[in-house]
Design goal:
The chain has 444 residues and is mainly α. It contains 15 helices and six strands. A hairpin with a 2-residue loop joins strand 2 and strand 3. Helix 2 crosses helix 9 and helix 6 packs across helix 8. The longest helix is centred in the middle third of the chain and has 21 residues. The two termini are 25 Å apart. Its main location: endoplasmic reticulum. This is Cytochrome P450.
């Protein structure tokens, strides 16, 4: 027995009129039919429920005193509601008063929470790890479903610079690479490097043996090794304001066949994704989530663009339609200055335009962005040694917010720290008390 749900999910526009149970109803009981029901009338008795003889009902309604109740009869509907559409029918009926304190805490009474509180850094690092797994290492991993999968744990360990020993080693490398070499200091364990090396070796072997082609970085590097790789010179579309133009060095005339590219070289390139694109991209997403949580007007406007884009592309997001989203680009371009990694690389400020701490997507509107001096806005660096992953990082950021905003509202909760406090313990930029937000499921 289920409490009367929103019947739209059953494909029926009108709620069924209800026969009586308990108090007298003013409505006349009428048979309830679902379009296309081809059930054998003999399978389901409708007797005594207000249906004419011989007409099968898949469900019917009644009143339990003032409460409308829906009774399901069709096993397929029961399966649909209890299993497939569980997300819409999560709760048991409430019949114990709140005063029954112990019972009201029991599993039976537990209600689907409107808002779930999540630590977004954990969620985003799992997401960026899965993205690296598929694009750089050529394997499929689901780190949200399999929380302790080896790939994620290895990557997390490799990029965890919160431990004292790693922080000290990092400083040692910075202060004196020569002494670090003499002392044979290493940031990455043998176990970790061997794990990734083995992964790449196995993948390349299987692909060569079975002639598997998968559009990912391993494929591109294997092609480069055969001298088949071509640079994308045509058809490059605008990938967003913040992206940097990769250097031309290595393109065109000076391209050469890299048959000397070893499996270890390929592993090293894949590992770059971990070092540069795992924690950093996730952190960037966390700061963006924070800004969206505390600037609900920006979030709402972005969600409207998400819905409009979905409508435009018939419900299935495409690469081109994602990149056409102007407001999305404005929001992800408006990176808070806190995420200034490149001071670490090159010692110049990444954002030095006026009032850089103010989160203001309007700065990046078509009318305003021309006013930005390019050398005051360098989230991905400048010159030939700029970031090779800017398109990649922005793309995965846009994708994640597209789908989050389609289904959820990001809201501040009790644990959200406003304003955010930056951790002093970690070498890499992160929030002192985590990035806690509420995700409120939208009814769409
Ligand atoms: C939000 C994410 C990211 C930010 C903010 C970022 C930022 C930067 C910055 C500031 C530099 C130094 C540029 C310079 O010295 O002028 C850099 C270099 C680099 N980044 Fe990124 N990056 C991000 C994501 C990625 C990703 C996903 C990859 C993976 C492919 C990546 C790969 C690299 C590499 C390989 C370099 C060194 C390039 C060279 O020395 O030629 N980055 N990045």
């Amino acid at each position: 027995m289920a409490e009367l749900p929103n019947l739209r999910s059953l494909g029926n526009e009108k709620p069924p009129p209800a026969p009586m149970w308990g108090r007298a109803s003013r409505k006349q009981p009428r048979p309830i039919l679902i379009k296309g029901s081809k059930r054998n009338p003999a399978d389901m008795s409708t007797k005594g429920r207000g249906s004419p003889a011989g007409v099968a009902t898949r469900y019917f309604g009644l009143y339990q005193f003032a409460k409308p109740i829906l009774i399901l009869k069709d096993p397929d509907l029961i399966k649909q509601i209890t299993i497939k559409d569980f997300n819409h029918f999560t709760d048991h009926r409430t019949f114990l008063p709140d005063t029954e304190q112990l019972f009201s805490k029991s599993l039976f009474i537990l209600k689907d929470k409107e808002v779930v509180t999540v630590e977004m850094k954990d969620i985003f690092t799992r997401y960026t790890s899965d993205v690296i797994a598929t694009t750089a290492f050529g394997i499929k991993v689901d780190s949200l479903a399999e929380a302790n999968n080896e790939f994620y744990l290895m990557g997390k360990d490799a990029t965890d610079f919160t431990t004292f020993s790693k922080t000290m080693k990092f400083f040692a490398f910075f202060m004196s690479p020569k002494i670090s070499k003499v002392l044979r200091l290493r940031l990455f364990s043998n176990e970790m490097t061997n794990y990734f090396r083995q992964l790449i070796n196995d993948t390349i072997k299987v692909r060569e043996e079975k002639a598997i082609v998968r559009p990912d970085m391993i494929h591109l590097l294997m092609e480069a090794r055969k001298g088949n790789h071509k640079n994308d010179e045509d058809g490059i579309i605008d990938t967003g304001f913040a992206t940097v133009q990769e250097s031309d060095l290595g393109n065109k005339s000076n391209i050469r066949v890299r048959e000397d590219l070893t499996n270890d070289d390929i592993t090293a390139q894949a590992l770059i994704f971990f070092l540069a694109g795992f924690d950093g991209v996730a952190t960037n997403m966390c700061f963006a989530a924070y800004e969206l949580a505390v600037n609900q007007d920006v979030q709402e406007r972005l969600r409207e663009e998400v819905y409009a884009t979905l409508e435009e592309c018939g419900g299935k997001l495409t690469y081109e339609s994602l990149l056409k989203m102007k407001y999305m680009d404005m929001v992800v371009s408006a990176r808070p200055r806190k995420t200034r990694e490149q001071q670490f690389f090159r010692w110049y400020p990444s954002l030095s335009y006026p009032d850089p701490d103010r989160f203001d997507p309007e700065r990046f509107s078509d009318e305003n962005k021309a006013n930005i001096n390019p050398y005051t806005y360098m989230p991905f660096g400048v010159g030939p040694r700029n970031c090779i992953g800017s398109r990649f990082a922005l793309l995965e950021t846009k994708i994640v917010f597209f789908f989050i905003l389609q289904h959820f509202q990001i809201v501040p909760v009790e644990k959200t720290q406003i304003p955010l406090k930056i951790s002093r313990k970690s070498f890499s930029m992160t929030a002192a008390n985590g990035f806690w937000f509420g995700l409120k499921r939208l009814k769409n």
